[in-house]
Each structure stands twice: as C-alpha cells, then as structure tokens.
Amino acid sequence: MVDQTARRGLLQRLEEDAVICAEGYLFELERRGYLQAGAFVPEVVLEYPEAVAALHREFLRAGSDVIEALTYYGHREKLRLIGKEDLLEPLQRNALVLAHSIASEAEGEPPLVAGNICNTNIWHPDEKKSDDLVRTMFEEQVGWAADARVDFIIAETFSFLGEAQIALETVKAFDLPVVATLTLHRDEYLRDDVQIEEAVKQLEQAGADVVGLNCARGPNTMMPLLKRVREAVSCHVAALPVPYRTSKDHPTMQSLRDPDCGCIPDDRPFPTALDPFTCNRYEIADFAKEAYDLNVRYLGVCCGGAPHHVRAIAEALGRFPAASRYSPDMSKHYAFGKEASLKKYNQDNIKNL
Ligand SMILES: [Zn+2]
C-alpha cells in the first residue's frame, strides 16, 4: 500500500516528475485589499494571517507542490523603509509557522515548505560594504527558516548575479537545498553585466540545486531566455513567469503600456492596472507544457498568478488536483452546450450573444 503520509524531498520529486510552486502572493493579496502596492511589505502575515492562510490553501488545492512562506519583501531593508524593523522577526517566524500549518492540512502527500530570500535593493557591485550588509540580512532570514525546518530555500528575483551568489553561499552554509532564480528585465544581461548563460552556470557551480528565471517577464518573453538557461546547465531548471502578455517591444510587466486607457496613474499599468494584459489559463498551460518538454521541471507563476493559473499548470502536467473537480465543462452550458435536453432556441440564439 502507498503510504499517503510519505513525503519526498524537492530533488526526488524533480527527478521523478515536476514540482509546481505557486507564487504571486503580494499581488494577489494586494488585489484582495490586504496589502499595499508600493513598498509591497507582507505585514498581512501579522495583521490578517487568515488571508494568507486562505491563499496558501487555494494554491494548494489548485495543485501547488510547495507552500512558500510569505517572507518575500519582509526583510530588514523593507521593514526599515516602512519604519517597522521591530516587526522583522515576528513577521518572518509567523510566516513560516503559517506555511507549515497549512501544509499539515494537505490530503495525500504533504507539500514541501519553502523559505524565501530575495533582492534586498541595497546591494551594488560598486559598494563593497553592501556585501556584508546583505549577507547579514540573508543569514538572519535563512536562520529563522532553518529553525522552522523548511524543506528548501527559494532565493529569488535577483537582477545582480553578485547578490544572488551571496544569497546562495548563505543558504549552502545552512546545508539546505536551494532554488536560485534570476530576474531579467528589458536588458538580457544581469545588472552586473553578466550574460544569463554565464550567470546560471556560476550559480550551478556554486551549489544551487535548481537555477532559473522568475518574475518580470511573461511567458512569451521568458521562453527564449529559458531555452538558453536550459542549454547552459545540467542541474534542474525553474521557470516562473508573470502571467502577463509581454511582447518584444514590452518584454516585462513593468514596461507594458495601455494607450487605450487614460485613467491609469503615471500612465503605467504596473503594478495595479495590469488586468487587461493577464494571460488566460490556456496560455499558462501552453507555457508549462513547452517548458516541461524542454526538461524544465520546476514550474510556477509569479506576480499576477492566481489559483486558476496554477491549476492549468497542474493539468498540463496530467495531474488532477482537488480544484480540477471544478474545471470547465461547457457541454451543459444553456447556449453553447451540446447536451440533448438543452433548448434549441437558446442554441440558435448564439449569434445574438
Ligand atoms: Zn514576481
């Protein structure tokens, strides 16, 4: 009999199949009215933990294999920015407790619980003293995550290879598996002028278990770079685009423009008016299939992602998560359906809909 409580680790799951990781908590909780766009600090962990728990549950039901503790942008620099450094440790520790708590509710094989570290916005290659500053920030965060016995650490959205390397060194010192993902904006080079192939190779050599790309770019503009990443390394690769219709002229969510709408502050849809650019579930499924066929096995969505996107990835991989019980079945739709008992006069009225 299969032991339903057995838990495979990150690497075993990647070897055997794929790992889905739902992200995008900040954007989704902002839309729901629990978090402020701008600083994007997840105070919601302390103020409305039930809102975070609900979203963890929704992503889990939709097929995420990972519950990522909501510590993204909950680091020392962000809390300094909003004058609440005293909340740093409670926020971090509570986010980790919450993630474990929801993971323990899962039916079947429990999900993995991941800690998170990310870009600090205070590292620069020309400021040598920033090495120590960010290292200290990473050490305290990874320390709390290690105390909470996470399965692995997600080190993400680094645009500087140098900062990603410090993050990686820190996690390796704690002997935890690490998924290290870089964010490329319009420029296809890292901000420290390193080519993407070279950057992921260096991260692989420094011990990253998974390397890849997340955030900023949508499926269309992440895929060409993803192919280059896949070619460059032999370790597992991650791809977590933002679910927005980015294009050659507007390759990132930050660069998208909406000339038909005159009511957007600063004329910039990012970050609160990106709705009309949102990818549908089928586009996300296509991206997941194409990526998986390239042997990219760590898949998800970043900012803008919602449970229906996660479910689309799961189904693209041939899975049937709990939320698939409600996947569309248009055969019973009163007008578009084909079932014999449906009224013909409604079907004939399609051209009028
Ligand atoms: Zn993101």
Structural commentary:
The protein is α/β, with parallel strands linked by helices and 353 residues long. The chain has a single domain (10-320), classed as TIM Barrel, CATH 3.20.20. Helix content is 39%, strand content 11%. An 8-stranded parallel sheet has the order 1-8-7-6-5-4-3-2. Strand 6 (210-214), helix 10 and strand 7 (236-240) form a beta-alpha-beta unit. Helix 4 (49-62) runs parallel beside helix 6 (88-103). The radius of gyration is 21 Å and the shape is globular. The relative contact order is 0.12. Zinc ion binds at residues 215, 242, 302-303.
Order of helices and strands: HEHHHEHHEHEHEHEHEHEHH
End-to-end gap? 52 Å
Q: Can you name the CATH architecture? A: Alpha-Beta Barrel
Let me know the number of strands: 8
CA-atom Rg in angstroms: 21 Å
Main β-sheet description: 8 strands, parallel
The number of helical runs is 13
Share of helical residues: 25-40%
Structural class: alpha/beta
CATH fold topology: TIM Barrel
Question: Superfamily at the CATH H level?
Answer: Homocysteine-binding-like domain
Low-pLDDT residue spans? none
* CATH level 1 name: Alpha Beta
How much of the sequence lies in strands comes to 5-15%
Strand adjacency order, main sheet: 1-8-7-6-5-4-3-2
Q: What would the average pLDDT be, to the nearest integer?
A: 96
Bound molecules: zinc ion
